Amino acid sequence: MSDTLKIIKERHSVRMPFDPSRPIAKQDLRQILEAGRWAPTAHNMQNFEIVVVDDKMALQELGNIKRTVSETFIRENYQQLSFSEEELLRKKVGLLGTNFPPSWRTPGVKPIVEEGSMRPLLTCPTLLVVLYDPGRRAPASEGNFLGIISLGCMIENLWLAANSLGIDFHIVSSLADGPVEKEVKRNLAVPEHLRVVLSIRLGYAAAGPARHPRVRRDIEDFSHHNRFGNKGID
Ligand SMILES: Cc1cc2nc3c(=O)[nH]c(=O)nc-3n(C[C@H](O)[C@H](O)[C@H](O)COP(=O)(O)O)c2cc1C
Q: How far is ligand 1, taken at its centre, from the CA of residue 13, in Å?
């Protein structure tokens, strides 16, 4: 149990460039996929497919897809940002502004879309593109809510397995953005009925470990004893 908890607590995002000359060993990749395979899914629907992209040309083509970012993204993203580590440690939720291009975190400045391009994908030896089949849904699940939760369970399994093998992991969800998704599907010959969930960069950070501060709400903040509002469990 303590090993499991340790892996859960140490799992983290690595957003920096990965060393393109350090591939993911096939047996490690198999173990990561094996962890995804055994994830719980609602009604055991196993509603996912994963395209493993390690061909350099294919990665380059994905990385060259033009991304447009919506005003809604910029506005809602801005609301989640902290502008210093102190602020982040105090708030315990959200992200540091430095994770985003300057024009995306400056109020009143028109965001420069190119700053958030897909180029980081070029520096990853393996990209997992997670797809889901909206047709493979648990019965009577409004909005396929249960199916979407299931994808989260599966992705968490991939993440824990990768980190436990010492492999860095970075979710890039922008591959699922409307016009980008269309291009991704075309590039990877994904059948029309499947949707892109997100993509995952796997690799080894080129510059070695550089951890960002990781914050979480306290247990007493989100747990409620017997009735909502009785904060904590004591
Ligand atoms: C569904 C989902 C989508 C995410 N999308 C992105 C993303 O597009 N880019 C990114 O850098 N991180 C992304 N993340 C990572 C989160 O920002 C990260 O897990 C969170 O800030 C906590 O940091 P930690 O993973 O280091 O604990 C995503 C995570 C999840 C679960």
A: 6
